[in-house]
Amino acid sequence: MPTLVIVAFVGLLGQLVDGSLGMAFGVTATTFLVALTTLSPAAISATIHLAEIGTSAVSGASHWRFGNVDWKVVRRIGVPGAIGAFAGATVLSNLSTEIAKPLMAVILLLLGLYVLLRFTFRGIDTKNLGKPLASRFLAPLGLFGGFVDATGGGGWGPVGTPALLASGRMEPRKVVGTIDTSEFLVALAASLGFLAKLGGEGVNFGYAGAILLGGVIAAPIAAWLVRHFPPRLLGASVGGLIVLTNARTLMGKSALALDPGVQRAVYVLVVAGWIAAFAYSFVQYRRDAVLESADSIGELAARNAAGADAPKAPVAA
Fold first, then answer.
1. Is Kinase included in the keywords of this UniProt record (predicted)?
2. How many angstroms separate the CA atoms of 287 and 151, rounded?
3. Mean pLDDT for the stretch of residues 90-94
4. Lower CB count within 10 Å: N or C terminus of the chain?
5. In the chain, how many H helices and how many E strands?
6. Per-residue b/e over 17-35, b at no fewer than 16 CB within 10 Å?
């Protein structure tokens, strides 16, 4: 029972992150399941994707209700994503645990590093809003994102969300809503791929249910959090946590088996880099907030000045 409670909390944490950033549910949940359980990488990814069928359906329905979904983009990125996810599930299911566990840790570490650097140095940027996205961009992106998502236990959001944000052609809220909604197709295809190969062997349906429960509870909290906690700071926080956890997995006995002294030195470097990245993100966030406030005040002053200079209407006698 205590383990199920912890796993449910993992689902809650993953949904808080995903609902605020449009990414990292799978990366966050898989990272902690690798550290907490003895399940094989394929079984962990299958468990996460089974839970994601439910969490992505709830999240997608919520985003649709609030008008945050571009259904054309969902179709153009989600269908290739499902194909990539099925292929990735097949590949991971055929790998031995000795190979798959460090491989998954490397993928997760790289995704965590990407999230950390992406939100530390760039934040969220939008350009060319409203311009259409070409299928020749969305289809390969979906195929790659789906494959990485299945083989790494997560990656659909870290691959898709920054790419769509960087295009500058969609509002951030629609990027998050569209990626979360299309993830239903990816999670469904990955789950079918794992079940076809594993036949349910090793998959922990209790963990999947606990993760689903935690994710559903977190959905409204995430909606509140995204309005009160800056996405830039949340991205830097979660990215660093993912890097640290997977660095620990890689340096353990099952992978690199480094000397304890070397491991401690690496941990110190990772934590120091994480603190520096968060501090930089905070400084940049404060600077951007001040600039935005100054722009708003200047705009208001200009409007007031224009109003004061306007000719007054004659007063009727």
1. no
2. 39
3. 80
4. C
5. 11, 0
6. bbbbbbbbbbbbbbbbbbe
Q: Read off the pLDDT of residues 101-134 as tens digits, 9 standing for 90 and up.
A: 677 677 767 777 877 887 788 765 545 555 667 7
In a domain, 127, yes or no: yes
Task: Classify residue 118: in a domain, yes or no.
Answer: yes
In the block, tokens 């990539």 appear at 84
123, two tokens: 């934040």
Q: Could you tell me where the beta strands, DSSP code E, fall in the chain?
A: none
Q: Is residue 314 part of a domain?
A: no
pLDDT, tens digit, 9 for 90 and up, residues 184-197: 999 899 888 888 87
- Do 48 and 179 contact (CB within 8 A), yes or no? no
- Token pair for 306: 């224009």
Number of compact structural domains in the chain: 1
Task: Tell me how far apart the alpha carbons of residues 295 and 306 are, in angstroms, rounded to a whole number.
Answer: 16
Q: What is the distance between the terminal CA atoms of the chain, rounded to a whole angstrom?
A: 84
Per the domain annotation, does 316 fall within a domain? no
Q: What is the pTM of this model?
A: 0.65
Read off the tokens for 102: 């460090």
Under 8 Å between Cβ of 154 and 27: yes
Q: Are 187 and 59 in contact (CB under 8 A)?
A: no
